[in-house]
Amino acid sequence: MEQEYINSILKQFENYKSVGEKTFEQLTDEDLFWQYHPECNSIAIIVNHLWGNMKSRWTDFLTSDGEKEWRQRDLEFESVIQSRDEMMTKWNDGWDCLFTALHSITPENFNTEVFIRNQSHSVMEAVNRQFAHYTYHIGQIVYVGRMIKGGDWKSLTIPRGDSTSFNDKMFSKGAGK
């Protein structure tokens, strides 16, 4: 059961990482720094926050509190990233930290008590908490990307108006294929 859960959540994290990356691919460098309003986060700011959170939560995941003393959360919401390359470096660094931690979870350590801000969590609770947090922010990234691209946006899932043909195709394969 434990390994099945880890394998499943790994696939889910990989999928949402890909959704973010497919959004970045549609945008210009300038688009990554666009803000609807000065109080709103650009995509680069959201990525910076995800990076800070991932580094804090997943570094020494099973042995130290997920809120590290060295984390500077407030700075994560400032325009500190200056280029696409810098943004992608942080994006990949955060995800690498996450995947390394998830791959360290085994049936033997699955029942370890972990802490986030001094609150106790099971491994599953902590992982689910972070999954929900990251998908929330990746949804923001996609939404900002869609706002920027407007009619030029390329759907990342089933395009509008194609649900019936998509379902027909999926069901024509047979069960479970």
Can you walk through the features of this model?
The protein has one domain: Four Helix Bundle (Hemerythrin (Met), subunit A) (Up-down Bundle), CATH 1.20.120. The chain has 5 helices and 2 strands. A hairpin with a 2-residue loop joins strand 1 and strand 2 (119-121). Helices cover 55% and strands 3% of the residues. Helix 1 (2-25) runs parallel beside helix 4 (123-149) and helix 2 runs antiparallel to helix 4 (123-149). The mean pLDDT is 95. The protein is mostly helical and 177 residues long.
Short descriptors:
single chain; 177 residues; mainly alpha; Four Helix Bundle (Hemerythrin (Met), subunit A); two-stranded antiparallel sheet; 5 helices; 55% helix; flat; DinB/YfiT-like
Short description:
The chain is mainly α and 177 residues long. The protein has helices at 2-25, 43-58, 84-103, 123-149, 163-172; strands at residues 114-116, 119-121. It has a single domain (2-172), classed as Up-down Bundle (Four Helix Bundle (Hemerythrin (Met), subunit A)), CATH 1.20.120.
